[in-house]
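// run 5 | inverse folding | seed 20
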């Protein structure tokens, strides 16, 4: 079977050198989890934290920690990756949803204020696709009520706010190092805390099981290296059980620490992250300028911030022409966003304290959002084809 060339919606490089380091770590060599954690903490102005086997597990730990014995409730955005629902269910916390503003992709401050006044015990903010949320505005609200902010920086690599990388602003911040994130180690995540007391408490709670050698992470890394490129991607994309490019709900798992292989591979990714993110940022800003004003999303950035643009989100109207445009866009790496608002996700419904006050922005995003690729594997012919798609379809 001859593979048809197909672009990836999102990509971050994993090198042979990283895989070799991962392999020697599986065999027991050269792993320094504390040194890596210190490197991540210093990059994000944090006091320390924990390495986990995934970003979802990091969020699960952060939510459980912030919710306290009363199990929350925790404020979540009504439009976000379904892994937020997985983490909330895994942490066994109650949930209140706030709406998302399509102009900023950040919180709709009216609904957020309402659910904080209704008793939220912590606020989760998500830098969707790397577009910065105005965390200082959320922090001001959180401070009024004395509750913490959890900053989900899983998609935020390369973004900047108030002169510091995204992931440096919440009381707790979580990160993902899986496939398709801005800094990839084929898996893994981390939760960082700003206060020394929180770091000590997180460590004392021992909520994460052992991480192990990570042979599975290494194999995933090798598969990512072989199949995560336009010449081969159509092969895994054609396998329905891999659900590539789809948003599906995953049941939660008990939290584990990151593996030795992930630690070694992530150390290599950190060496390259700034150069790679700068290129993604430039490409995203270029697409944002090219997209017509009516199709722009998240274009109102907080003052003094820059978006990381893991992908460039934009709006493609609902209806038959959307299906046709997406069919044409898919081989170019153009992909739909999350198909449902969290407000409409059946598995999350039992955790909701009350039905969402308002989720019109979230539902609008679920019906219309698509993303353009910004990664390094785009070649001149991809750029030309994507420009044509933007001109014809948006
Ligand atoms: C915003 C957000 N949070 C958390 C996660 C979970 O990360 P992981 O895939 O490493 O479990 C993701 C993953 O896509 C995400 O997009």
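// decoded
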């Amino acid at each position: 079977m001859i593979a048809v060339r197909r672009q990836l919606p999102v990509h971050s490089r994993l090198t042979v050198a990283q895989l070799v380091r991962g392999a020697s770590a599986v065999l027991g060599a050269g792993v320094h989890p504390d040194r890596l954690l210190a490197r991540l903490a210093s990059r994000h102005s944090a006091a320390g934290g924990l390495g986990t086997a995934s970003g979802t597990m990091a969020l699960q730990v952060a939510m459980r920690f912030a919710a306290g014995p009363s199990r929350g409730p925790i404020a979540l955005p009504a439009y976000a990756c379904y892994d937020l629902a997985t983490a909330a269910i895994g942490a066994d916390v109650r949930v209140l949803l706030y709406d998302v503003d399509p102009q900023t992709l950040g919180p709709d401050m009216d609904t957020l204020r309402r659910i904080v006044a209704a008793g939220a015990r912590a606020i989760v903010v998500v830098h969707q696709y790397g577009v910065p949320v105005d965390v200082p505005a959320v922090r001001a609200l959180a401070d009024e009520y004395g509750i913490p902010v959890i900053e989900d920086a899983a998609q935020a690599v390369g973004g900047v706010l108030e002169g510091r990388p995204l992931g440096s602003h919440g009381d707790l911040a979580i990160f993902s190092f899986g496939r398709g994130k801005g800094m990839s180690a084929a898996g893994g995540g981390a939760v960082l805390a700003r206060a020394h007391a929180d770091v000590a408490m997180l460590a004392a709670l021992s909520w994460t099981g052992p991480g192990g050698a990570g042979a599975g992470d290494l194999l995933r890394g090798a598969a990512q290296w072989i199949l995560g490129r336009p010449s081969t991607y159509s092969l895994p994309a054609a396998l329905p059980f891999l659900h590539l490019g789809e948003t599906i709900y995953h049941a939660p798992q008990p939290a584990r620490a990151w593996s030795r292989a992930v630690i070694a591979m992530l150390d290599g990714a950190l060496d390259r992250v700034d150069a790679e993110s700068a290129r993604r940022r430039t490409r995203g800003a270029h697409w944002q300028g090219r997209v017509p004003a009516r199709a722009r999303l998240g274009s109102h950035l907080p003052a003094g911030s820059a978006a990381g643009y893991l992908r460039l989100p934009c709006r493609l109207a609902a209806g038959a022409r959307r299906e046709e445009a997406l069919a044409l866009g898919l081989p170019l790496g153009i992909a739909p966003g999350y198909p449902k608002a969290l407000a409409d996700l059946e598995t999350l419904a039992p955790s909701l304290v009350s039905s969402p006050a308002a989720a019109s922005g979230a539902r609008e995003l679920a019906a219309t959002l698509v993303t353009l690729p910004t990664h390094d594997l785009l070649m001149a012919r991809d750029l030309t084809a994507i420009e044509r798609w933007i001109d014809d379809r948006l």
